[in-house]
Every structure is written in structure tokens, then in C-alpha cells.
């Protein structure tokens, strides 16, 4: 059986790690004046400079050999053509079909999926136009002013990140709110600022069975009926993006307002589907299509460019060099762009839920490190928080700097300062400063790795390309590590046990470990089986509270039973 770590290329890379351990990145520049030109590339509106990475020409060539010897060509073709590559959930992985702008069919299970994708796109177009134009009316005849997306994980992070990133393209008459946390403080805070007559709720959940989302959706519906009156039309204010049409309709959503998507769209890859509806509402359908276009162009690049000039492949290989040969545990994402402040959180889920795996696709434990811990925040804020450790600490942390070149009118001086700070940091990480002896507390060792990704401008199209770039980077790493990047059984385990614990709130259950039982006893003192603080469940308005408790019971039942596939 093939063992990655025993392969000739892997062993050669280990040898190169030892050989280059004492190299200084800056010496590579001295030795090769062409290095920047050689180790940078442009795809559409994106420019990647990876010349400040600790890779010699020889290392890069070996990394490309690693990709050549992997199943990448075959698995990439399988993904794009709808083969079952998510083997543990027995389904294809087709987020690329959602942004496919090419002609021709895409057959899955003998059926062309493109017509239904087109139909849903058309549904998104007509609905978003109706809301944006004011043609869509709430129950009292008012136009919508506020859109609340209720969802979590992939049903929150993608549209949330994109709406914030593209805020300057937002419809001026619409405000957007994202509620994800099951902590009631989150939804209460959002609802406290809203008028039910002018609010539209999107219940975004692939499965329509995620506890957090269902609790928040039921709280929102209860609030709506309390405020607008018990007979107010829920259907005029609640719509859903879900694969579970029946459950959405049972919630009170009109059939025509369930925006469909499909089991072959993974939660963290779903912003291109109906889950992206808030994006279309915010920036308009044409803007949403530009986002898809950018992703589609990156898909075409990923499919056709030779590995040595393939942006996602190169980023993946450099990541593998860091993780498997240089001992990096984490990957920092630092956007020098306030509009991209949600990007690190989005990429964290994308990467960590996909490649946080320790068995290969055959179920064998792997003997190498897989996905890194992804973290970060915007610069220049990060400079005044965690950069100190990156400059002088004991850890080796590769950084992706991300920025857009075009300044905002009126604040050009800010943008110039932003970009010069980013360039200064990338330079300082590489050069360091040797002010005296090596023990001098003022000296920074340097030789710390970073890449710089520049967007010509933060447009929907370039954002689409940027996200597709990272999706493919994660995919390539998963293929080389021979893991399934598309399941998330660890998350499902947590979901299942949360359901079981909530069902045991009354019982003196021996089913859990002593610590969980002890904690449960403490929690039990404050809650009844309805999840209400004890004593407070006494109905002031008997009917309303009965309904409320019944809804919660139903939610808990569903939470316990769900299969929870994301
Ligand atoms: O976090 C795990 C996960 O399964 C994600 O993949 C998914 O995006 C999220 O839960 C929410 O699931 P759903 O969209 O079904 O509510």
C-alpha cells in the first residue's frame, strides 16, 4: 500500500528541509534578482507574491513533484464532474457547479443538474429584485428595511463575510443582521432594534434541523407574532434557504419561498447557493452573479494552469512545506482591509472543518500532520496585538497578508498607510533586525515566512475569486494528505451529544461521565425540562407560554433525532 511519508518525493523533501534549515530567505533574493518575478503570479484581479516564503527553487520543484505524484489531476476531475468523492457521506461535491457559467450539461446520477441550478438562480433574481424594489410587502403593506439571516457555520459565515466585505455595494434602504449563536442574547439584541412590519427573516439551514438555528428561528417567529399580532402573515416575513422543503413549510414558510439547494453542496462551500441569498439582497443579483463569475474564473484557472503556475496549487504546496516539513502548527490570515474582517473566521471554518482529519480516505490513521489551526484578524490592528509574538516569539507562524490596491475616495491617505504597514510587516518578518548579539532583546530574528495576496479592488468578482482560491487550496492539501475534506464527523458528534444531554435534563442519568453528570446537576438547579429558568415557566399568559413550551419541546425532539449532516 502507498505510504505518503515513505515515498521518494516525501523523503527528498525531508532531506531538503535539513539542507535548507540554515538558509536565509533574504539570501535567495541576493542570489536571484529575478526571484520576485519568478515567484509571483496574477490570476484575473488577484496577484500573489510568494517570494518571501522559505522555498528555494529546488524545494519548489520537489513540492510540484509531490503534487504530480498525488491523485490531484484525477480527484480534481472527479470533483468537477460530480463523482462521489465525499466517500463517508456517499455523495458528490459540486459547489463548483453552482458557479458554473459554461454551456453544456453536468450529469450527476444520470441527471443534468444545471437546469435546477439555473431555476434557483432565477428564483434568487426575482425575489431579490422584488425586495430591493419595494415590490415585496410585509404583512401591513410596508416595504422591507431589515433582513435577518438566521443560520450557523456555513449557513452564516459565507454570506455574513461577503455582505460585510461588499458593504459599499449594499442597497441603501436595506440593513443586514446575522444571528448565529444559540445564546439568546444574540437574537434579543438584534430583535430589540427591529420593526416586525419591515423585517424579513431568512432561515438558512441546509438540514433545517440544527438546534441553534431552529431555536433562533422559533424565537424570531414568536417575537414576530407577539409584536405584529397573532394573525399576522408569517409567510410574508419568513423565507428559507434549505434542502429540507417539508420542514421549512411546516415552520410556516410558503413553498415558493423555500430556496432550494442540494445535498451535494457542503455547508462551508454553500455561499454560492441559495445560502448566498443575503448577498443578492444586499448587492443585487448582478453583483451576486459577478461573485460567481470570479469564482468560476478561478475554477477555470485551477483546472487548466500547470501546477507550477497554478495559484491554489502553489499556495497548498507552500502550506504543506510549512506544516509537514517546517513544523508549523498554525496559519495566520491577516487582511489589511477592514471590510474583510470576517474573512479569518470564514477561512477558519473552511480549512479546519475540511482538513481537521486524522484518518485517510481508507480509514487508516495518518502518520503526518494535516490541516493547520487557522486564525487571524485585520491589520493594522493585529500589529498592536499579536504581531510581537510573530516577530520575536518561539513559534513559526506562516502569514497570508491580504489587501486591495484601490483606495476609497476621500481616505486615500489611510489606504496608503494601510498598505505601507502591510509591506513593512512582510519585509520585517523576512529581514528581522540584528542590532547586536543574538541575545540582544532588541533584535528580531527575521526569516519568518509570509505571502502577499493583492486584489486590484475589493469587488464582488475579486472576492469570488479569492474565496474559490482558498477552497481549492484546501482541496489540494486534502488530496495530497489523502483525507476526505468534505465530511465533519467531529461536529456531528457534538451535535448528537448536545441533543442527548438536553433530553436528560430531568433524569438522574448515569449515561455520562461523572464530570458531565456533575455539571448537569448544577444546570438542572436552574432549568426545568422546558429549558426555562425554574420558576419562570409559570405562565402569565397561559396560552402564549404553552405554545412556547410546546415549540421548544418539538425543537428539542428534532435536535435529538437529527442526522445533522452539514
Ligand atoms: O458546523 C457543522 C455544520 O454541519 C456545517 O457544515 C454547517 O454549515 C452547519 O453545521 C449548519 O448546518 P445547517 O445548514 O444544516 O443548519
TrEMBL record:
Compartments in which it is found: Cytoplasm
Keywords: Cytoplasm, Gluconeogenesis, Glycolysis, Isomerase
Pathway given in the UniProt record: Carbohydrate degradation; glycolysis; D-glyceraldehyde 3-phosphate and glycerone phosphate from D-glucose: step 2/4; Carbohydrate biosynthesis; gluconeogenesis
Principal place of residence: cytoplasm
Name this polypeptide is given: Glucose-6-phosphate isomerase
Gene3D superfamilies in UniProt: 1.10.1390.10, Glucose-6-phosphate isomerase like protein, domain 1 (3.40.50.10490)
Reactions it catalyzes: alpha-D-glucose 6-phosphate = beta-D-fructose 6-phosphate
Name of the coding gene: pgi
One of the Pfam families matching this protein, by short name: PGI
Organism expressing this protein natively: Halomonas aquatica
Assigned protein family: Belongs to the GPI family.
UniProt lineage: Bacteria, Pseudomonadati, Pseudomonadota, Gammaproteobacteria, Oceanospirillales
Free-text function comment from the UniProt entry: Catalyzes the reversible isomerization of glucose-6-phosphate to fructose-6-phosphate.
Amino acid at each position: 500500500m502507498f505510504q505518503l511519508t515513505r515515498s521518494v518525493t516525501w523523503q527528498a523533501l525531508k532531506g531538503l528541509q535539513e539542507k535548507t534549515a540554515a538558509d536565509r530567505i533574504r539570501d535567495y533574493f541576493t542570489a536571484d534578482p529575478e526571484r520576485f518575478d519568478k515567484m509571483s503570479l496574477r490570476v484575473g484581479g488577484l496577484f500573489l507574491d510568494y517570494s518571501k516564503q522559505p522555498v528555494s527553487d529546488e524545494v519548489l520543484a520537489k513540492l510540484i513533484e509531490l503534487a504530480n505524484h498525488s491523485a490531484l489531476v484525477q480527484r480534481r476531475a472527479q470533483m468537477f464532474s460530480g463523482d462521489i468523492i465525499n466517500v463517508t457521506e456517499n455523495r458528490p461535491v459540486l459547489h463548483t457547479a453552482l458557479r458554473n457559467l459554461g454551456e453544456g450539461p453536468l450529469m450527476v446520477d444520470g441527471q443534468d443538474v444545471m437546469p435546477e441550478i439555473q431555476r434557483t438562480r432565477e428564483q434568487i433574481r426575482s425575489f431579490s429584485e422584488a425586495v430591493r424594489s419595494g415590490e415585496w410587502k410585509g404583512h401591513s403593506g410596508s416595504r422591507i428595511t431589515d433582513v435577518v439571516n438566521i443560520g450557523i457555520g456555513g449557513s452564516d459565515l459565507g454570506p455574513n463575510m461577503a455582505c460585510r466585505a461588499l458593504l459599499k455595494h449594499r442597497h441603501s434602504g436595506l440593513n443586514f443582521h446575522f444571528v448565529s449563536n444559540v445564546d439568546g442574547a444574540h437574537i434579543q439584541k438584534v430583535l430589540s432594534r427591529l420593526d416586525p412590519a419591515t423585517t424579513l427573516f431568512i432561515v438558512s439551514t441546509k438540514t433545517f434541523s440544527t438546534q441553534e438555528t431552529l431555536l433562533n428561528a422559533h424565537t424570531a417567529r414568536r417575537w414576530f407574532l407577539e409584536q405584529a399580532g397573532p394573525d399576522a402573515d408569517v409567510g410574508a416575513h419568513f423565507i428559507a434557504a434549505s434542502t429540507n422543503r417539508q420542514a421549512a413549510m411546516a415552520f410556516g414558510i410558503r413553498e415558493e419561498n423555500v430556496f432550494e439547494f442540494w445535498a451535494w453542496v457542503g455547508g462551508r462551500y454553500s455561499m454560492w447557493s441559495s445560502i448566498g441569498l443575503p448577498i443578492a439582497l444586499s448587492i443585487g443579483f448582478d453583483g451576486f452573479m459577478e461573485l460567481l463569475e470570479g469564482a468560476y474564473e478561478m475554477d477555470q484557472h485551477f483546472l487548466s494552469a500547470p501546477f507550477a503556475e497554478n495559484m491554489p496549487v502553489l499556495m497548498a504546496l507552500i502550506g504543506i512545506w510549512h506544516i509537514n516539513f517546517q513544523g508549523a502548527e498554525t496559519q495566520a490570515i491577516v487582511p489589511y482591509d477592514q471590510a474583510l474582517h470576517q474573512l479569518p473566521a470564514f477561512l477558519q471554518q473552511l480549512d479546519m472543518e475540511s482538513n481537521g482529519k486524522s484518518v485517510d480516505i481508507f480509514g487508516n490513521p495518518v502518520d503526518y500532520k494535516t490541516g493547520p489551526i487557522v486564525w487571524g484578524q485585520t491589520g493594522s490592528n493585529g500589529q498592536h496585538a499579536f504581531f510581537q509574538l510573530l516577530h520575536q516569539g518561539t513559534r513559526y507562524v506562516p502569514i497570508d497578508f491580504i489587501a486591495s490596491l484601490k483606495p476609497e475616495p476621500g481616505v486615500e491617505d489611510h489606504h496608503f498607510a494601510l498598505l505601507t504597514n502591510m509591506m513593512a510587516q512582510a519585509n520585517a518578518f523576512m529581514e528581522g533586525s540584528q542590532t547586536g548579539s543574538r541575545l540582544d532583546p532588541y533584535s528580531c530574528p527575521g526569516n519568518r515566512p509570509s505571502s502577499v495576496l493583492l486584489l486590484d479592488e475589493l469587488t464582488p468578482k475579486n472576492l469570488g475569486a479569492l474565496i474559490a482560491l482558498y477552497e481549492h487550496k484546501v482541496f489540494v492539501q486534502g488530496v495530497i494528505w489523502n483525507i476526505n475534506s468534505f465530511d465533519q464527523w467531529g461536529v456531528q458528534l457534538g451535535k448528537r451529544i448536545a441533543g442527548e444531554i438536553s433530553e436528560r435534563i430531568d433524569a438522574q442519568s448515569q449515561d455520562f461521565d461523572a464530570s458531565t453528570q456533575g455539571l448537569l446537576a448544577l444546570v438542572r438547579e436552574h432549568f426545568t425540562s422546558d429549558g426555562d429558568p425554574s420558576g419562570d415557566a409559570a405562565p402569565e399568559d397561559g396560552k402564549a407560554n404553552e405554545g412556547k413550551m410546546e415549540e421548544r419541546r418539538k425543537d428539542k425532539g428534532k435536535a435529538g433525532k437529527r442526522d445533522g449532516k452539514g
